[in-house]
Automatic annotation (TrEMBL):
This is DUF3443 domain-containing protein. Keywords: Signal. The keyword Signal applies. Residues 1-20 form the signal peptide. It comes from the Bacteria. Pfam families: DUF3443 (PF11925).
């Protein structure tokens, strides 16, 4: 049985803490990209089998909290320098709209938890408040080895969610909405942020305590905002892999417009580094450092558009779409019949592509409590933003090129 109230996974992008993201809509297709998102018969389409150590299974099903459209992988976390104090954690949400690994403290064994060193500045522990539109995660920053498939990022900063008492949450700048520090609230055992940025805050948190999302906590309490060098901030694991570190590829099967009980795709590391990650996209859109296409258009207005596997629907602002009146589906759209909307994506490189989004009544979709994968689920988003959430990914192969400009490399991009 679906936990429908938890399905409204409206969240901010991790921004670089400058821009909020929002919600998302359904099956979209860029002109020239081929099919995608549409009906392909029943079930969850043809499962896509991982090939090679740089490729792992990406699964959508009921998960750990019965939340729809949550794509998950398994991640192995080890204490730095140890090959035995390790744990493979299932049901980690794959999020192309954030940067860095965050794992619930409750999902860790006591041995591993005690083996992950807490980041300190002076005598103070460092904690992070990572904010979403519906709430926040709060917990310490620690160092861990992170392995996904055969790829390992050694000794990188990660966030351990919920390992500090709720009484330590700072009243200033953090407690924005409810805490997302449990499996039921988060909808997964953690979040794997593999968006285009190398870390989750960058120069903003390195230079300004006022705008920082990091906190110094003497003795684990009395937490106050602090600056933190980028090298100590929660890090996107991908740029830290020895190879296959220039991007990621998400591939999901096509599914029926009525939804599917599950869907199985792949997450591939690297772009153009192995035979299984050749860049085959027909269009490539350069983005800003947060993965946004800031000059896109929807309903005649300029919008910031982004591709976010961590949003479980398409989220857009459209007053012509009927909102659901049933309180169980608050935040979603319930048009009387299936409809569609179009938008134009514009990359910083001038690339232009038209997106068509199919929208089906959310109450109808949720009427089958056995389905957890939907390609035409849409919700009410923030004005000026277009969140192409997981419905956009079904039936597509989508590439995310890492931001390598800091070392003289290529600018970030998305392609499909």
């Amino acid at each position: 049985m679906q936990t429908v109230q938890s399905t409204v996974r409206i969240k901010t992008q991790w921004v670089r803490w400058v821009q909020a993201a929002g919600l998302a809509i359904a099956a979209a297709c860029i002109a020239g990209c081929g099919g995608g998102g549409g009906s392909s018969g029943g079930g969850g389409g043809t499962p896509i089998t991982p090939v090679g150590g740089n490729q792992v299974a990406l699964t959508v099903n009921s998960g750990v909290a019965n939340v729809v459209n949550i794509p998950t992988v398994s991640v192995t976390v080890c204490a730095p320098g140890s090959t035995s104090n390790c744990q493979t954690i299932n049901n980690i949400q794959v999020d192309t709209g954030s940067y860095g690994l965050r794992v619930l403290s409750s999902a860790l064994t006591s041995s591993l938890s005690s083996g992950l060193p807490v980041t300190t500045v002076g005598s103070s522990q460092i904690a992070e408040c990572a904010q979403f539109a519906i709430g926040y995660t709060w917990g310490t920053v620690r160092t861990a080895n992170v392995t996904i498939g055969s790829e390992t990022a050694s000794s990188i900063p990660v966030q351990i969610i919920g390992d500090l008492a709720s009484s330590t949450v700072p009243a200033t700048g953090c407690a924005n909405g409810p805490a997302q520090n449990t499996t039921s609230n988060l909808g997964a055992n953690g979040i794997l942020g593999i968006g285009v940025a190398p870390n989750d805050c960058g120069s903003t948190c390195a230079t300004s305590a006022i705008n920082s999302i990091y906190y110094a906590c003497p003795s684990g309490a009395n937490c106050t905002r602090t600056t933190l060098p980028a090298t100590q901030q929660v890090a996107n694991p991908v740029p830290h892999f020895p190879v296959d570190n220039n991007g990621v590829v998400l591939q999901m099967p096509s599914i029926s417009g009525a939804g599917a009980s599950s869907a199985s795709g792949t997450l591939t590391f690297g772009i153009g580094t192995q035979s299984n990650n050749t860049l085959t996209a027909s269009q490539s859109f350069t983005t800003n450092s947060a993965g946004n296409m800031v000059s896109s258009t929807f309903n005649g207005n300029t919008v910031t558009a982004f591709l976010d596997s961590g949003s479980n629907a398409y989220f857009l602002s459209d007053q012509t779409l009927t909102p659901c009146t049933n309180s169980n589906y608050t935040g979603f759209y319930c048009p009387s019949s299936p409809t569609s909307r179009t938008a134009t994506l514009v990359g910083l490189n001038g690339a232009v592509g038209t997106v068509t989004m199919n929208v089906t009544n959310a109450a109808t979709l949720f009427g089958n409590g056995n389905n957890y994968a939907f390609n035409d689920l849409a919700g009410s988003g923030n004005l000026g933003q277009l969140d192409l959430g997981l419905p956009f990914f079904y039936g597509r192969t989508i590439f995310f090129g890492m931001d390598r400009t800091a070392t003289g490399g290529s600018a970030p991009y998305v392609a499909f």
